Amino acid sequence: MKTSSAWSCYDEAQLNELEAFAQDYREFISKNKIEREFVAASVELAERAGYRNLDELIRRNERLEAGSRVYASMRDKSLILVEVGKQPLTEGCNILGAHIDSPRLDIKQNPLEEKNDLAYLDTHYYGGIKKYQWVTIPLALHGVVVKTDGTVIPICIGEDADDPVFVITDLLIHLSQEQLEKNAAKVIEGEMLDVLCGNRPLVVKGAPDANAAEEQEPKDPVKQKVLSLLSERYGMEEEDFLSAEIEVVPAGPARDLGLDRSMILGYGHDDKSCAYPSLRAQIDLNEIPERTALTILVDKEEIGSVGSTGMTSRFFENAVAELLALCGYGDSSLALRRCLANSRMLSSDVSSAFDPSFASSFETKNVAYTGHGLAFLKFTGARGKSGSNDADAEYVAFIRRIMGEADVNWQNAELGRVDLGGGGTIAYILAKYGIRVIDCGVPVLSMHSPWEVISKADLYEALRGYRAFLAS
């Protein structure tokens, strides 16, 4: 089934809406590159739209009714947004689920070292990345340092025009004969991903009564200079790295791409190009939905959805149980099971986009094309659908009808050639509750690279598709 470019379908009003939304998205992902930042900014938008903190409602034992808007956060790194619908909650929810973590480098807990008058921060890569892509590009540090008294210190260095940036160096071409004989997986290895962060030594003046005004250098003076700057700016000591979460990401904002400005080059399109439209579709609902609308934005998908902020935790299940209690169902586990089993979901995660430069990696009848709209994947997984949710035909037919009635531009897709590899999403985790779920999202070029590419049209169709689904 052949699809066509979504760009040919828009009138002037839609083009204006598309451009406005693309600008909002570009600015949002430029300012909120990591999970904590994404959640904080999302909560701010949600509260402005009338959402209230679930924990506060629980303390007040406040009854929820149709139109009530609620949010719940988990460790400031995952978020659930709910608008209670007109139908009983046991009839199920319409759920959008996306992840807000992206491949990156994490600063280790004992990272700072000096080697030959250069100071480095040691890292551990996070998620599936090609390690050689991270060398020689400007890098920024985002995250938090938590002091032993509980004080949380936000860290963001490398984004403002006056900020310094960081880099991972590479071997000059003149000496790289041996390096270039290695395969791509070995050209740059994990232990080589050290972030260069200083070269100037800390100089300590001699004692005032000394005969000569000589200067003294402490041990590891460049490292000590870096520590002195961290202390001056953040009140941070070396031991504070032990309780820090600092992520290394590409520095700089997302940009329009192409002479026609039809695309966006940015960090973290996987999966923020699905998470942000999901967020906006949820908070921009202008009528009380028939079925309860729920959006979940989760952490840790890139490493298997593990941990207390990942989809495999009980955060989602517990939050829904609390909602049921506030809607008058008490602590009934049966009501919870009915609610989940009657729910339906779009697992909002990106798809690969066909790249003519690597055409042999794709099966052209079943691949997403840039600019052709929202991509639906009946299944994901690897090779023999391993680790996949596989949506049933009846649910796919239902989705076809919803998208058709809303005139959403959409396409069918698979990740790539059957035996070449694969990938997974959070869909299979939600499916264990009996939730009907299908993967869908924005096609991405250069997925899992520091700078990824999407079409503004696909981003806009994701917003339109998610709106239609929540209202169904």
Structural summary, described in words:
The structure is a single chain. It is built from 11 helices and 24 strands. The protein has about 475 residues and is of the alpha/beta class. It folds into 2 domains: about 5-100 and about 265-470, Aminopeptidase (3-Layer(aba) Sandwich); about 105-250, Aminopeptidase i, Domain 2, CATH 2.30.250. It is globular, with a radius of gyration of 24 Å.
Provide the descriptors you would attach to this structure in a database record:
Aminopeptidase, six-stranded antiparallel sheet, globular, Aminopeptidase i, Domain 2, 2 domains, alpha/beta, 11 helices, 472 residues
Number of domains: 2
- Radius of gyration, in angstroms, nearest whole number: 24 Å
Structural class determined from secondary elements: alpha/beta
**What's the end-to-end separation, in Å?**
25 Å
**What is the CATH homology-level superfamily of the largest domain?**
Zn peptidases
Helical content (DSSP H or I, runs of 4+): 25-40%
